[in-house]
Design goal:
Blueprint (H helix, E strand, L loop, with lengths): L1 H21 L4 H9 L23 H14 L1 H20 L2 H14 L3 E4 L15 E7 L2 E11 L7 E7 L12 H4 E7 L5 E4 L14 E11 L3 E2 L4 H4 L3 H30 L5 H28 L4 H30 L9 H12 L5 H13 L13
Parallel strand pairs: 1-4
Antiparallel strand pairs: 2-3, 3-7, 4-5, 5-8, 6-7
Helix pairs in contact: 1-3, 3-4, 3-8, 4-8, 8-9, 8-10, 8-11, 9-10, 10-11, 10-12
Length: 387
């Protein structure tokens, strides 16, 4: 944890503004993680990892590292999450041959991974083309055609786990039959048939995630790169492991905003202002609450009751969004309009959090918790109702 904290409060925080301004992939941050032995955090020690994952009873270790990184740079935290999600999936579902091949590459060369699903089927105004992939079985493997969006780390990752459906566009989040159709396969992003569309990506926040559109021009994926069984991602509830990590990132971003606001208040000598004191107290209680919830959900996720862990993760995800947004708004009130003028750490957190909290719908999550309490049909990891 100390290595992560030192990197986060040192170089990650220092670089964040430049990455944000330039819409640049945080390659140097990954280089630092590699040189510090932090590229296989959720992986078994057999393969050189740190075993910070539910399977080893220590997912809280991974989430606390995420908090530290998000405190410095929420955008980079998303890239970190994607890499670790891929590592966790490979560790849990990969064959020994796959682990030997891919983990050796990570350990020796610092290979960067991502995990991509995004194939939204609803069009936005002005959108001319549909988004999505198709899959064709051929001799020795599969042909992937089409495109995905929100492909985090697209120009900087070496490999990506593609979540694709045998039934056509929709992948994991927009497919209605994921338990029987969703596949995971590793794609070598140096393949000449894979290209990226950077013109699509120019958001107000989370800019250095460089979540481009990725295009597959009949990309061949060999059978040996297929991960796990068809539908296993949904059936085994892997999203329940990842949803709380979003919460950890929100928690970290809120902590970073609070740290920035406290520095401002002290520099202005406003410690005796009663309204400032109330904001400070409320923020600290927000952060204390999230810290307690993070530990509690980590315990549940590492347990045997998958339904309880899924519901607990949804509760934490919703609560983290609510309390983190409240924290950042209070920080802005403490510091005034100047805090939203570039360059400002608080201004960047404000933008990043406004984008990242839209990753998965908190309203649907809250409704799902209500369904569980009322004995109504609940939803799976991607919120398609199960009857």
């Amino acid at each position: 944890m100390g290595r992560v904290r030192n990197l986060a409060q040192g170089v990650f925080l220092e670089r964040a503004e430049c990455y944000d301004e330039g819409l640049a992939f945080p390659a140097e941050n990954f280089d630092d993680l590699f040189s510090n032995g932090l590229m296989m955090v959720p992986v078994s020690r057999k393969w050189g990892g740190l075993e910070c994952a539910p399977a080893y009873g220590n997912v809280i270790g991974l989430w606390r590292m995420t908090v530290e990184i998000a405190q410095a740079d929420l955008s980079f935290s998303r890239c970190w999450e994607g890499h670790n999600n891929a590592m966790l999936l490979l560790d849990a579902l990969g064959t020994d041959e796959q682990k030997e091949r891919w983990f050796t590459d990570v350990a020796q060369n610092g290979a960067r991974w991502a995990a991509w699903s995004g194939e939204p089927q609803s069009r936005v105004p002005g959108q001319k083309r549909k988004v999505g992939t198709t899959l064709e079985k051929v001799s020795g493997g599969y042909i992937v055609s089409g495109n995905k969006v929100f492909a985090t780390s697209a120009p900087g990752a070496n490999w990506a786990i593609l979540l694709v459906s045998q039934e056509g566009p929709g992948a994991a989040r927009d497919s209605r039959n994921g338990e029987n159709s969703l596949m995971m396969m590793a794609c070598n992003l140096s393949d000449a048939t894979v290209s990226f569309g950077d013109k699509w990506w120019n958001p107000i926040g989370m800019r250095s995630t460089v979540s481009y559109q990725v295009n597959f021009a009949d990309t061949f994926i060999p059978d040996e790169n297929v991960i796990g069984e068809v539908g296993q991602y949904i059936r085994d509830g892997f999203q329940a492991y990842f949803t709380p990590q979003y919460a950890a990132s929100f928690f970290g971003a809120a902590s970073g905003a609070f740290e920035s606001a406290l520095m401002f208040v002290r520099s202005q000598g406003k410690q005796s202002d009663p309204f400032i004191q109330q904001h400070v107290a409320a923020i600290q209680m927000n952060l204390d609450t999230l810290d307690l919830w993070l530990q509690d959900v980590a315990t549940k996720v590492s347990g045997a009751d998958k339904t309880a862990s899924r519901i607990a993760g949804s509760k934490l995800r919703w609560l983290a969004e609510t309390l983190s947004e409240d924290t950042v708004k209070r920080c802005v009130k403490m510091c005034g309009a100047r805090s939203l003028n570039k360059p400002s750490r608080l201004e960047r957190v404000y933008r990043d959090l406004s984008i990242y909290t839209l990753h998965d719908n908190a309203d649907h999550m809250l409704a799902n918790v209500g369904r569980e309490l009322l004995g109504e049909p609940t939803q799976d990891a991607f919120f398609a109702i199960k009857t």
